[in-house]
User: Fold this.
Amino acid sequence: MAVTVFLSVSGLSAVASSSNLRRLTSASNHRLTAIKSVTSTPLPPSSGVQRSRKNNDENRATVAKVVENPYSKIESAQPDLQKSLSDFLEEARDFVGDRGGPPRWFSPLECSAQAPNSPLLLYLPGLIRHHKKLGEIFDIWCLHIPVSDRTPVKDLVKLIQQTVKSEYYRFPNRPIYLVGESIGACLALDVAARNPNIDLSLILVNPATHVNNFTSQPLSGMLNVLPNDIPTLLEDIFGFIKQGDPLTGMLDALSNEFSVQQMGGGMLRDLLAVSANLPTLSRMFPKETLLWKLEMLKSAIAYVNSHIYSVRAETLILLSGRDQWLLNKEDIDRYSRTLPKCIVRKLDDNGQFPLLEDGVDLATIIKCTCFYRRGKSHDHITDYIMPTTFELKQQIDDHRLLMDGTSPVMLSTLEDDTVVRSLEGLPSEGPVLYVGYHMILGFELASMVTQLMKERNIHLRGLAHPMIFKNLQDSLVDTKMFDKYKIMGGVPVSQFNIYKLLREKAHVLLYPGGVREALHRKGEEYKLFWPERSEFVRVASKFGAKIVPFGVVGEDDICEIVLDSNDQRNIPILKDLMEKATKDAGNLREGDESELGNQDTYFPGLVPKIPGRFYYYFGKPIETAGKEKELKDKEKAQELYLQVKSEVEQCIAYLKVKRESDPYRHLLPRMLYQASHGWSSEIPTFDL
Assistant:
């Protein structure tokens, strides 16, 4: 409990060792200098931050390289690099040993390679573990409050506000992100309340909303009676900070040993890390600092709660399930209702400090909530960030049971009409529009999207129902189940977004049947529910996009629908839930008198079967280049539209016939084959 309180009220956070750090030497001039061996090149005083780079003549040479598919070896992908708690405490010694001074900004040199036009991210205070990955998409500045500093809250807010105004004046079209944990979240809200007209985005991690007096009063009394020389006593008694100390070496070895354990290792490793760095912790949190910051915390919370109605910035609140000391669920509910654009994301299995815990990746959370933007609002196309290899591996692992159980067979068609068991027949260069059939609940997506990335480095941008991107707080389902669509590049379906994607020469995935096809009813397997008139042909021809028709079969070999929307309408409780879900999602085909307009949003009742096999067949690409004028004629466009639909139906019919001759269609023969040939071996299929 004491450690929890100490970290909650502390204002110190280490990011990088001093040899990999850029910092501001004072709060007044905002000039940045490097430390130790890093060469610094000053910028004009008005530039705010100075970049430090190592001079390397080799980087000036242009070297032609063969670009490899980064996703081809996805199975061996390692977690994205983050600082461990042990690293944090080790590097914190450099901050503890500084010469004090006023609060100031610093920026890790590891964050100097961010993408062009990256937004500014101010972390309040410090940044733990996530700076390297965030530094690829943000320009990161971190606020360092020295241990001996006693700057009042109002002056800290003035410092942050001065920086925000200065950067907004320099780059008025660049959003500024304020990220704060606990008391840092209070500072962020305070600055946002004072600057409602500046384009801010807030990320608040377990924002401190109240102080539990039942805990804080005894803690304050206990701190008052502690002796002032605790840090020195700990060093004299334990000698942990001496290099080469046997006990330190033993704790480090145990920490490294437990770091590879999957169960309980994280907790034990962190416990050992704290034990090995106890004197450092005591110097980070001397008695005077803790007492002062406890009072600062109270005043910051009081001010924020009285000015919360002035905040106009969009807000992402990350809420741990096991934070009880500074967090009040009723206050968070009030924040979510009061703040105009607020997303609350719950981290049910995390404690007081989720950013210190394994399994929490702030950059990934930002992607999953569509909270990243470079302009005035989020653009699902230009602001999209490709998944890292480990993020793709996580998606594969999440769907491993389905993918391994169905052993997908993927066929494509070459230019000479030859059907091959590979994706060789798919165009490498965009724009390409993939048009096909939607299985129940989109079961076909995981295998198809990941295999295209692994085998051909083709990234499909799927057009999805807008409900996936709504982040509704009172949704009937956990919105985190839609994370996979956002990570993998899903885009709300609309004619404008199809236009923009094809203009960017993307590989676009379109299901004309949409929700009606993905949530079909009993006996409707492999039936297309497409609009009667063409909706995509002319926009494809405008950019000369190739249209690839495809079919998939296999859903009837893994499950059977026993409770569809017609059945659920006869059950009062399910009927009410279905009507609410349909209302929340919205009907994109409202007013359509055909069966396509009869879209119910519901979860079908499914009975699983012993899994069969999934089959995918990509037809020969249809060229539209040079046909823009011809396809402006509605009748010509309709002819091509019906041709695409017919080819999709032919692909499905082909697979339904051919799978009957597949000796490995069922699970047992596939398991026996892999048992004798290796579990990673490709399982044969029918003759082509």
User: Anything to note?
Assistant: Residues 634-658 form the longest helix (25 residues). Confidence is low (pLDDT under 50) at residues 1-66, 213-217, 230-268.
